[in-house]
Structure formats: structure tokens, C-alpha cells
Design brief:
638 residues; 20 helices; seven-stranded mixed sheet
């Protein structure tokens, strides 16, 4: 996962308190005035002390941090940062939080500085209202000058302000895209202003191409260009060729073909060149990967210009062309765009052979990340701040359609949001893994806790099967309130003693195994949560489970049947073990069966822990008959 550096600045005790959740949630460094050090120590939080005037401290933080969050009046922040503002492409994000923590305002660096995204993260962590005034964001659109960032595209030349203004005014923006992913197009709101075909009089034009275009400044409408990193440059060179010569050769070939150097994904060559000083230095300086292949691998690639001389020297008839094609084909289909050209630079030693191939899928120059997120029972208030932030930060959100609908308010403009059918869990996991291996940050959402009948285990299992090294893509698991916890909370404290969860679905577990677990749990006097108790076609399992528990427990054992917990259509049915089958039960239901000491007191189920000297000292309530109630919202299993 990409890491950013944030500084949270507080000047009052109330501001300090408001910013505390950001210390671990983002995380952020907490900067305070000397007078607040004792206050911070009382909260047991580590702080950085502004031992100079705040203006001087901010001047340093401005150049070393990606974002600054102030708990301070907006006017005061404006006056503090005004002398530091230079350009929106380099200024950090600036967010202002009210001292009550009720509002988070994106003040500066909204698009390119990441201010809008940071504001959303802060708002999720503080349970605050995000105030974002950018026009594109308010239309549900990604910033046109930011839409390629998740995919590693290079922002080219053009009138970006003019194109952005056309988008903000909902005027027709012609998009001419001949390379790179089209995912961004597939997830635009229906009211977007982009036109993906030639139009007679567009208000603006956006090119997405490896070609470097020169725009006439006197043109009648603004134009701009993105360059997806789809070009792999094959390099062959004499030993000891200087970096400057290799660099000049690449630039010359790109200019001749009108290719943008920003569209270069990386360089490729023979493995004998893996230690070529000039080649290695150039890749390090430009942050290009260097792909090196063996002679046997290169020999297998058909090329238009094989050389017997080259084959005699390095045992393959092609280096530059074959390496370019092979590098471009590693992740997708590759096509040679520029046949090999030999370049020499007058007055410089060495010679360079250059060829260029284009990949179908662009290279993303950073590792991907998988966030496995438990969203709780379905109410946004029941999702942890960390889980909210993980969803908001992700480039892609994947999950079962019902769960996606529940967390839609957490998604932001420009995100790729993919709802999937409930029966395609494996395909869902494979899709998330593929996107993360490509370099995207992917949130896979499950209801309840993602590690309890959720997607976390399946994603990790699928990763394991691909030879995953445990590190790339990186994985983070965000727990959520499980269905059994949420259901238990709505009826009291039935899980106060030892308990277990058993799914009655035999789609993935043999029914014989489920029966053994039911018998063992019933005999061991566990409080039991039954997941997936009944579906339209699977009706016998709950009846068999009922028989097993009736053989081991009193028919008066308290039972709670909880459906769609914490959702608008929540239904809670309190009954007894004897009358369990009379309760309405389906796949959105969790059944809680008490143990021999579980008590019913009015609407509450209580399983004594033993603090008062015995398991049955709590006075039992009135006789528990079947009772239904409707309220606010169980979660179906993740």
C-alpha cells in the first residue's frame, strides 16, 4: 500500500481532542503548541512540539508532508498558508477540521494535491461531514487532470485548466483514447459530459495515447493529453555505452515516431546487460523497470529483423526487438511499433540499438494492495472508521451487489465499483487479485466480519495458490462487526459465555461434517449461532439442527431469530427452542440458541458469565413465549 505523510496541527485543547483519531487512523503526526504538551500527555499520545513560531514550522512541513490537517479557523489557516502556495501540482493537501470535529473542509490541493480524498478519509475517521467544493466532485466525476493517476498514466501537455472548466460546465468533452484501460469510462455517472467519438464542435478534447501531440495555442478550444505507460523500449548496446548516449538514443527514436517518453513503461534487454552501468543508471533516474531475458527466451520470439552477427555474439538473433516484444507481452498482448534502429551520438563512445513495442495493458509503476474489509451488519454507523477509510481510499471496490449498495455513500467519484452476483465468490476473489497484481488498490467488501464466512479467507487462499510471496500485493484485513455479534447486541448478552458459530449451508461443507459439529456443540452446551439456516430450496437442515438440540437441551431454552440486523427491514423474533421452527427463518437470518444457563428477562437474553458465583443466579424473567418485533436493521453472512 502506498504510504503518505500527514501532519495534524492543533493549537487549542478542543482542537487536540478533535484530531486524536487521526494519529493512528491515517496515521498522522500530531503537532501542538508547547502549552498543549501536558494535555497531549494526558491522552497518552506522542506529539511533535512547535518550538518555533507556527509560520516557521509550517514552512518546513509544507515541503515534507503530503497533507496538512488543521483544527483551526478557516480564515486563520488561509492567512498561514497563503505565503506558501506555489502551484497546485506541488502544493500539499490542506484540510481544515472544526474544533467540534463535525466538519472537514477540503481547503487546498483538492484534485492534484489529494485534498478531496484526504478530506473524505478525515471525515470517515472523525464521523464528520466532508465539505468538498470542487465542481467535478460535486457532479460525481473524477478530476479530468487526475483520472489517469490510479493507472499510472503520465499527464502530458495541454490546457488542463481549460479542459477542466469544460467538464465543470458540463460541456461536451471529446475523448480520443487509443490505448490504456477503459475501466474509467465504464464507471462514470450517467450524466457525464465525455463523448467517446468524434464530434463536430466539442468544447474541449482529451487525448489518451502514447503519441506526443503538439497543440496550437491559438486553437478554438482547449486540448490536453494523458499518456498511459504502454511502451516497452528494447535496448541493445555496446559494453560501456554511457547513460547519456542511451538516453539520447531513446529520445531520438521517440521523437521520430512521435511517441511521448511519458508513455514508456520500462526498458528491456538481454540478461547479459542487467549490470550495464549506463542502462541501470538511466532506469534508476527515470524510475523505469529493467526487464532482462535470457538468450533462449529472446530466441523464441519472431522478429522482423534478425541478425546472424548478433546471434554469433550473444546466442540470439535479436535483442532489442525481441526484448521489447517479450516485455510488452508479459502482462498482455504486445505489438512491435518501431523496428530496431541503431543510434550513435557524435563525439560519444558506444552504440545503441532501440526498438519499441506496445503492450495492450499499461504498466502501473507501484505495487498493488488488497484491503479485505468487513462492513458490519449493513448500517453505515456500524462500520469502523478504518474500514470506511479503506473503502474510500481504494481505486477499486468489489463485492456482492447487496453489500455494494449498502456502502455506496462511502464510494467517491472516479472509483471503479464492481457489484458481483452472490454465487461468484471465487471469480470475485480472482478479479480482485488480478487488479491488485496489476498495481491497483482494491477493497473487497464482505458483510459482517470479512474473516467469518467472508471473503478474506478465500482471497488469501487464492493468493496462496498463485505462489504469492506474502508481500506483493500487500494485504490488509479490516475486521467488522459480525452477524452473530450484531444479532446478540440487539437481544442483550447471549454470548457472555463460550459460544460457537456453525453454518448450515452444505454448498462448501459436507452435511455429514455439519451434523457432527451440531451434535458436538449441542452436547458441549455452547451457545450457538446458526448461519445460513434456511433457503428457498434448502429447508431440511434447520429441522435436523432443531432435532439435535432438542435432544440435548430443555425445550424452554431461549432462542433469538434475528433477520437483517441494523437494516431498515430488521425483524427480531424471540422464542424458545421448542417453538424455533415456527419462527420466520431465511438466508438473511442468524439463529442464536442459548445454553442451559441462558435466561430470558423481558426482551433480553442473558447468558451468565459466573461473576455472581453461579451460572443461574440471575433471576429469570417471565415465561418466554414467541414474540416478534421490528426495528432498525441481521446481517447475512459475509
Amino acid at each position: 500500500m502506498l504510504l503518505s505523510s500527514f501532519a495534524a496541527i492543533a493549537v487549542t485543547p478542543a482542537g487536540l481532542k478533535a484530531l486524536l483519531p487521526l494519529v493512528t487512523g491515517l496515521p498522522a503526526e500530531l503537532w501542538v503548541l508547547p502549552a498543549l504538551v501536558a494535555e497531549a500527555e494526558a491522552w497518552n499520545v506522542e506529539v511533535q512540539v512547535c518550538d518555533r513560531p507556527l509560520k516557521a514550522v509550517l514552512a518546513d512541513l509544507w515541503t515534507t508532508h503530503d497533507g496538512l490537517i488543521f483544527a483551526l479557523a478557516t480564515g486563520a489557516v488561509v492567512r498561514l498558508i497563503a505565503p506558501l502556495l506555489t502551484d497546485k501540482t506541488s502544493d500539499p493537501a490542506v484540510v481544515v477540521v472544526s474544533e467540534t470535529g463535525a466538519q472537514a473542509i477540503s481547503l487546498c490541493g483538492g484534485h492534484q494535491g489529494g485534498g478531496d480524498d484526504l478530506t473524505r478519509q478525515v471525515a470517515h475517521l472523525l464521523n464528520a461531514n466532508p465539505v468538498i467544493t470542487g465542481s467535478a466532485q460535486n457532479h460525481g466525476l473524477p478530476g479530468v487532470d487526475m483520472l489517469g493517476v490510479p493507472f499510472g498514466w503520465s499527464r502530458g501537455s495541454g490546457d488542463w485548466t481549460g479542459v477542466s472548466a469544460a467538464v465543470a460546465h458540463s460541456k461536451a468533452v471529446e475523448v480520443l483514447q487509443d490505448c490504456g484501460t477503459f475501466l474509467w469510462q465504464d464507471h462514470l455517472p450517467t450524466t457525464h459530459p465525455f463523448v467517446f467519438e468524434s464530434v463536430r464542435a466539442p468544447a474541449a478534447r482529451l487525448w489518451i495515447s502514447p503519441i506526443q501531440r503538439r497543440f496550437d495555442p491559438d486553437s478554438g478550444f482547449p486540448k490536453a493529453q494523458w499518456h498511459p505507460r504502454v511502451l516497452w523500449v528494447g535496448i541493445g548496446c555496446e559494453r560501456g555505452t554511457p547513460q547519456a548516449v542511451i538516453e539520447a538514443a531513446i529520445a531520438r527514436v521517440c521523437r521520430a515516431g512521435h511517441f511521448a517518453e511519458g508513455a514508456i513503461a520500462g526498458l528491456a534487454s538481454l540478461d547479459l546487460k542487467a549490470d550495464e552501468v549506463g542502462l541501470v543508471a538511466l532506469c534508476a533516474e527515470r524510475q523505469w523497470p529493467l526487464r532482462c531475458f535470457t538468450a533462449e527466451e529472446l530466441k523464441a520470439i519472431p522478429v522482423p529483423n534478425p541478425s546472424t552477427v548478433v546471434e554469433q555474439a550473444v546466442q540470439t538473433p535479436s535483442v532489442a526487438e525481441a526484448a521489447a516484444i517479450l516485455a510488452a507481452t508479459e502482462a498482455s498482448e504486445g505489438q512491435l511499433r518501431v523496428a530496431k534502429q541503431v543510434v550513435r551520438v557524435e563525439g560519444q563512445p558506444g552504440a545503441v540499438t532501440v526498438a519499441i513495442a506496445q503492450a495492450e495493458r499499461e504498466y502501473i509503476p507501484h505495487p498493488g494492495h488488497l484491503a479485505l474489509v468487513g462492513t458490519g451488519p449493513g448500517d453505515l454507523n456500524q462500520i469502523t472508521p478504518a474500514a470506511k477509510a479503506a473503502i474510500s481510499q481504494a481505486n477499486v471496490v468489489i463485492g456482492y451487489g447487496l453489500y455494494i449498495d449498502q456502502i455506496r455513500p462511502l464510494c467517491r467519484p472516479g472509483q471503479i465499483v464492481e457489484p458481483w452476483p452472490i454465487t461468484q465468490e471465487r471469480q470475485r476473489a480472482d478479479r480482485a487479485i488480478d487488479l491488485a497484481r496489476w498495481g491497483l488498490s482494491v477493497a473487497v467488501v464482505s458483510s459482517g466480519d470479512c474473516g467469518i464466512y467472508g471473503m478474506a479467507g478465500l482471497v488469501l487462499e487464492q493468493l496462496q495458490g498463485t505462489g504469492w510471496d506474502g508481500e506483493t500485493p500487500s494485504v490488509e484485513v479490516f475486521p467488522g462487526i459480525s452477524a452473530l455479534q450484531a444479532a446478540a447486541a440487539r437481544v442483550g448478552a447471549p454470548l457472555m459465555h463460550d459460544f460457537c458459530a456453525i453454518s448450515l449451508s452444505d454448498l462448501l461443507t459436507p452435511w455429514e461434517v455439519i451434523v457432527k459439529r451440531l451434535e458436538a456443540a449441542a452436547a458441549a452446551d455452547f451457545v450457538v449461532a446458526l448461519y445460513n439456516p434456511k433457503s428457498k430450496t434448502r429447508t431440511e437442515q434447520i429441522a435436523i439442527a432443531h432435532q439435535i438440540f432438542m435432544a440435548q437441551r430443555s425445550p424452554d431454552t431461549p432462542v433469538a431469530v434475528v433477520k437483517s440486523v441494523y437494516r431498515p427491514d430488521e425483524v427480531i423474533h424471540r422464542t424458545t427452542l421448542a417453538d424455533l421452527l415456527d419462527a420466520p427463518i431465511d438466508m438473511l437470518t442468524v439463529v442464536l440458541i442459548g445454553n442451559q444457563s441462558t435466561q430470558r428477562h423481558g426482551p433480553w437474553l442473558i447468558t451468565p458469565r459466573g461473576y455472581n458465583g453461579g451460572a443461574a443466579v440471575i433471576e429469570s424473567g417471565p415465561e418466554s413465549g414467541a414474540e416478534s418485533s421490528t426495528a432498525g436493521g441481521p446481517s447475512s453472512p459475509g
